[in-house]
Write a structure and sequence with these properties.
By secondary structure, this protein is of the alpha+beta class. Among the domains are: 62 residues, no CATH class; 225 residues, Nucleotidyltransferase, domain 5 (2-Layer Sandwich). The protein is 33% helix and 16% strand. It is built from 15 helices and 17 strands. The strands form 5 sheets. Strands 6-7-10-11-8 form a 5-stranded mixed β-sheet. A 5-stranded mixed β-sheet has the order 15-14-13-16-17, sandwiched between helices. A 3-stranded antiparallel β-sheet has the order 1-4-3. Strand 3 and strand 4 form a beta hairpin. It is elongated.
């Protein structure tokens, strides 16, 4: 059977549905539950009536109005012209089940496609029919700007969205191109590797470098409390044995404080997780707040850039930022120093006029500016695809030899090497502050 939503469900016997622990309407009523999605199967009883079954993982608690209706109560029914028998119920009971009149469904922008499921009688004796909202088809919402075409993105139709996107892109490009006149030696990029993402987890690696590409710190850190971190170890590859002879965070605090106090900006990709752990090197809230004022998040800036230039992209990890900006890998993949280098180059690509001096060769190396595509739904899958590209590139002949052998070969769009990091490897993919995505933009 094909449902109005377009989904197809199989027919099965009541015994098979019971073995699969599917729930019928009668059982849902006894358990004070109501479906939260389409049925997953159906059966036909002896008189040809359809019985639907629902997944127990997709049900919610029913409205209290439906709980204590006496089981032995005589319920009025009416047979419609097509032979369907519907039960009488008041408007409140119907709404609790998701049943509405045709007029109400039209106001909600739904088209009725099924037969009535309940009825009531008004004071003047006229009959009102209720229809199941789940069986109705929702009409596309109109554009919030022109009110004519159906919505495409950001509550706008395609034409209005393209005009709004052009305005936002121009504003974003002007914002990123604005000179900041920052001193490269006073802008620091950092990345931490952690035993986990919670507050009680500890730092096990710190990497810091300035905008000249000079490494200020790159060290493992011995945790004081955690003895193993199996889950994150699979991501960053740092084992408990590797940090046994490393300095503790307390030993690094004086050096870290000196570097942070002499910096104007501290930039990380996915800064919220790193800041929530590094802030504890300071004891007072005022010192932590002073540190927070220097923090900049490259992930948030990239999300804005991506929404303006690649609105169809759905991923925003560091690996995706490098692909979108045409930055090739530099360093040992997935280590904190590699993530720090990648963050520095992403920031350089996003803000070309951020510093008083142009990018030195150590920073500009690998910044091709040619976007490339990554395959995979998850961050780890896309990073694995990138690793395959890196392995293939390292096994191939050198770029110089290839250029001599194939002088007319076109650029494949990936630059001279392949690589990326897992981005903010301990946390989720950054998505930026998407609250404004639900706002209705001005139509231009």
């Amino acid at each position: 059977m094909k449902l109005p939503s377009g989904a197809s469900i199989p027919r099965m016997t009541p015994e098979e549905a019971d073995r699969r622990r599917y729930l019928s309407h009668a059982l849902l009523n006894r358990m004070h539950l109501t479906p939260a999605g389409d049925p997953v199967a159906y059966s036909l009883d002896g008189d040809g009536q359809t019985q639907y079954y629902y997944d127990p993982n997709r049900v919610v608690e029913a409205a209290p109005e439906l709980w204590y209706r006496p089981a032995m109560e005589t319920r009025e029914t009416r047979t419609l012209e097509n032979g369907t028998v519907v039960e009488k119920m008041n408007t409140r009971q119907a709404a609790a089940r998701g049943y509405y009149t045709r007029e109400r469904l039209n106001q909600m922008r739904y088209d009725v496609t099924a037969e009535p499921v309940a009825y009531n009688v008004r004071g003047d004796g006229s009959t009102i029919l209720f229809y199941d909202k789940r069986a109705a088809l929702r009409r596309p919402l109109p554009c919030a700007c022109c009110g004519k075409e159906p919505r495409y993105k950001r509550k706008l139709c395609r034409a209005c969205f393209e005009r709004d996107l052009a305005v936002r892109r121009a504003q974003g490009d002007a914002y990123r191109a604005e000179p900041r006149f920052m001193d490269r030696s006073r802008v620091l990029f950092f990345d931490l590797e952690l035993t986990g993402v919670y507050d009680h987890d500890e730092i096990i690696s710190v990497s810091i470098m300035d905008a000249n590409g000079e490494v200020r710190m790159d060290t493992l850190v011995k945790p004081l409390h955690k003895k193993k971190w199996n889950r994150t170890e699979k991501i960053h590859g740092i084992t408990p044995a590797m940090v046994q002879d490393a300095p503790t965070l307390d030993e690094l605090i004086p050096t870290l404080k000196e570097m942070f106090e002499n910096a104007d900006n501290l930039i990380a990709f996915g800064a919220s997780t790193d800041y929530s752990h590094i802030k504890y090197i300071y004891e007072t809230e005022s010192e932590q707040e002073a540190l927070h004022k220097k923090i900049r998040c490259a992930a948030i800036e990239f999300v804005r850039y991506q929404n303006e230039h690649f609105p169809d992209n759905t991923h925003a990890a560091l690996v995706d930022a490098m692909a979108a900006l045409g930055i090739t890998w530099d360093g040992i993949p997935h280590s904190s120093i590699a993530d720090t280098i990648a963050c520095m180059k992403v920031w350089e690509a996003l803000f070309p006029n951020y510093y008083t001096t142009p990018a030195p060769e150590a920073v500009a190396h690998g910044m091709t500016g040619i976007p490339y595509q990554l395959e995979g739904d998850s961050k780890l899958e896309r990073a694995a695809h990138l690793a395959e590209k890196m392995n293939a590139a390292s096994a191939a002949v050198s770029a110089e030899t290839a250029a001599e052998l194939l002088p007319d070969q076109e650029d494949d769009g990936y630059g001279d090497s392949y690589g990326d990091s897992y981005g903010d490897s301990e946390g989720e993919e950054p998505t930026g502050d998407n609250r404004d995505m639900e706002e209705v933009p001005a139509c231009v």
